[in-house]
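Archive transcription. Copying these from loose printouts into the bound notebook so they stop getting lost. Printout 1 of 2:
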Amino acid sequence: MGLSLWLVPNPTQLQLIQKVLPKQPKTRPVSAASYPDITPHITLASSGKATQDAFLRAIPSTLHPIPVEFQKLEVGDHYFRSVFISVKKTTELVALHEHIMAALDRDGASPSAPAFPHMSISYIADEDGAAERKNAADELRDITVVEGSETDLDGAETVVLRCGDSEEGYVCLARFEGTEVWIVRCEGPVQHWQVLHKITVTPDVTVT
């Protein structure tokens, strides 16, 4: 796959979301490649040609935290989009994505970002099939995902992640704040992927 550029939630939200990502089921056999530990993120761009320096050049010189709003829990037909949450195409998120894609394209990197924007919840191997992906989504709905619990002003569907208990009750997320941009080498099994560079996004940060 090469290199990817990820928008990652702030550390507190990242930890909350990671707690509820599906694990390998104990009640049924699945492939060893299914349900790896993953870092929740939005892929802004991927390229098999780009260098790390090209990705750094593609990032806007001034970055702001990017709000990411959840829309719908979906089941896909690709390993990396087995079960995912589609995300609202906000002005800020689309502008960042388009800036990066255009810069990489000018560099001849042939960038891609399938099904942008989305946040994957599970990677499930093809040999486990559509039935296992549906099982994972159904189990999320039973425990973690509350659908249609908010009314979107645009009339779009919304979901909330019920991420765990606090002293006041459940911690629920309908969105996250993208405060880190990671450059990740995505080659081989997921557990072998390498984070090459992290940029922490704070108000009016300038990338150097």
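Printout 2 of 2:
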Amino acid sequence: MKLKYSLLFVPCLLFLSCKTYTVTPESFKSQFSNVDYDLSTSKSISGSIYYNGFQIKKINVVDKNGETQMLDNAPSLEMRVTLNNGKRNHFYFDSMKLKNDTLTGYKARLLPWMTVKIPFSEVVKIEIQESGKKIKYMN
């Protein structure tokens, strides 16, 4: 019986330890519609041979208390996008780009062909989560 409760407790701790922020689609679009997505300015991520993250510096987000914060980009940030049909898509924040009203991002760092492409007009909610993974950009 104790093992059963222990198995339930561990995922709860993992879920509660991650910080989640929200961004309205309008705010997101105003912040990122004019970003230059130049891979020559990207940095490699430790433990990843093939992946280079776009160097988006910061994003204005709202925390769970409703306060606006400026969140620094990091390879450990993940983005969850909810569409108007209720479906959710996940990808790494530093892989996303918003171009020609299409939001694009990678689901997996080592599998760049696993790309998510979403018409931005279908986005109703954007959440950015600090995953707690110990991933860093290489200098």
